[in-house]
Write a structure and sequence with these properties.
FMN binds at residues 104-106, 133, 175, 204, 270, 292, 325-329, 348-349. Belongs to the FMN-dependent alpha-hydroxy acid dehydrogenase family. Its cofactor is FMN. Helix 3 packs antiparallel against helix 14 (349-380), helix 6 packs parallel to helix 7 and helix 11 (275-283) crosses helix 12. Strand 4, helix 8 (184-196) and strand 5 (200-204) form a beta-alpha-beta unit. The protein has helices at residues 9-12, 41-46, 57-67, 70-77, 84-95, 116-125, 140-155, 184-196, 214-218, 252-262, 275-283, 305-316, 331-339, 349-380; strands at 96-97, 100-102, 130-132, 172-177, 200-204, 266-272, 288-291, 322-324, 344-347, 395-396. Helices cover 38% and strands 9% of the residues. It is globular. The structure holds flavin mononucleotide.
Length: 418
């Protein structure tokens, strides 16, 4: 759990010139479409006017969308089919009045800069954990290495830059799709991750098949030639965007014992939305669950994760950690998720927007903005410690909304351990 102090205000007043660099890779010109970038979803939903300097994730998103080639914009931004779940993740969070880590997302070098390496540095300098996608464009060894080096540098004295942060131990988690276990490639990948220092495997189970992302069906998404898969390449068919050798028929009772026999890392299942699956995770001795709908990229019209969370928290009852992602764009969203039962909140696109806007600095800014917003919400709701964040500190703006409980509902009672 991240504990952060307020930021020095000067950090937010940084010069904005860096945010308008153009992408320096000539190969990317072929990617550029002629269309104007769209207005960020967040802006569309809230009718936000963009200020001139980035002080929110929505600002970073606008800068990122302005800079990114069209195909990358579509890949990062898009959800499945009519994008109902993608929108619901965000709007459902906003219907409620109300610490975090970097979640795994693929192909960070599409955003430019040093991709995953920049994300690792920014996270590690702040003592924030990072989940690495198995579709990373930097090797899993390099990611952890640069992260640890950046952290050591901070520890060795340059703390002024991050004054105000209470530095916690960084942690590194490796995401993995459920691939065909008959190949030794998955086994090699797991052992490589453990050897490199990753402490947990996030097994993504909500992608037995790829969701229908319409923009990518209309215009085929491929990695540009200068990029390649740098870690999970053997589990995919070739180094290009190619599909993983997924095994959609895998069952809990065969997968979990097999994974346990191959690694001592913690094992979490990512992509839980139903309380019955949360119960299965307990039954099969998982070390945690990640409540996620893959950022609305898989099953369209799946519930928003914030709506699914309370029922899952009721089943888990504090026995294993609940990680949560989907639509987190503000510190307020982190607070809401914690109040409804999450222990750790994962950032998806918020980190991608920071990365595309300004590399390591942009990711750092995204993390700092969310941290500062989160601390402010804590202060303004009269909460002095993360463990005091409970359902009872939330008010329902729209009690009639399907999926949300009213305050008179007995199940609204907070069951998180104090
Ligand atoms: C561009 C992109 C790539 C992603 N790649 C992966 C991936 O490789 N593995 C995975 O488990 N989840 C992946 N996800 C899902 C994220 O881990 C996370 O569930 C989602 O981004 C959360 O929603 P948000 O981005 O709206 O916050 C990806 C999401 C995006 C936007």
């Amino acid at each position: 759990m991240v504990q952060l102090e307020f930021l020095a205000p000067e950090l937010l007043g940084m010069s904005c010139s860096i945010y308008h660099e153009t992408n320096n890779n000539a190969d990317w010109k072929q990617w550029n479409g002629s269309e104007e970038p769209s207005k960020p979803l967040y802006h569309q939903l809230l009718n936000v006017t963009l200020p001139t300097k980035p002080v929110s994730i929505a600002d970073l998103e606008q800068i990122a969308l302005d800079k990114l080639p069209k195909l990358v914009r579509q890949y990062y931004e898009g959800g499945a089919e009519d994008e109902i779940t993608l929108r619901e993740n965000i709007t459902s969070l906003q219907r409620l009045n109300v610490p975090f880590a970097v979640g795994p997302s693929a192909f960070h070098r599409l955003a430019g800069y040093d991709g995953e390496l920049d994300v690792a540095r920014a996270a590690a300098k702040r003592g924030i954990a990072m989940g690495l996608s198995s579709s990373s464009t930097s090797s899993l060894e390099d990611v952890i290495k640069v992260g640890k080096t950046a952290r050591e540098e901070i520890e060795e004295g340059s703390r002024q830059e991050n004054e105000g942060f209470k530095l916690q131990d960084s942690d590194w988690w490796q995401q993995l799709y459920v691939c065909d276990q008959r190949t030794s490639d998955t086994e090699d990948f797991i052992q490589r991750s453990e050897k490199a220092g990753y402490t947990a495997l996030l097994i993504t189970v909500d992608r037995p098949y790829l969701g229908r992302r319409l923009a990518s069906l209309r215009e085929k998404f491929e990695l540009p030639l200068h990029l390649r898969r740098a870690s999970g390449e053997k589990m995919a068919q070739g180094e290009q965007i190619a599909h993983y050798l997924l095994n959609p028929s895998m069952h809990w009772h065969e997968l979990i014992p097999w994974l346990r026999s191959k690694t001592k890392m913690k094992i979490l299942v990512k992509g839980i939305l139903h309380p019955e699956d949360a119960a299965l995770a307990l039954k099969h001795g998982l070390d945690g669950v990640v409540v996620s709908n893959h950022g609305g990229r898989q099953l369209d019209a799946a519930p928003a994760t914030i709506d699914a969370l309370p029922a899952i928290a009721d089943v888990i009852q504090g026995r294993i950690p609940i990680f949560f992602d989907g639509g987190i764009r503000k510190g307020l969203d982190v607070y809401r998720a914690l109040a409804l039962g999450a222990d750790v909140v994962l950032l998806g696109r918020a980190v991608l927007w920071g990365l595309a806007a300004a590399g390591e600095e942009g990711v750092g800014l995204a993390l700092d903005i969310i941290a500062e917003e989160f601390k402010l919400v804590m202060a303004l709701t009269g909460v002095t410690d993360i463990t005091q964040i409970r359902r009872s500190t939330l008010a329902l703006v729209d009690p009639a909304h399907v999926g949300l409980k009213t305050l008179s509902d007995p199940s609204w009672e907070d069951r998180r351990p104090i």
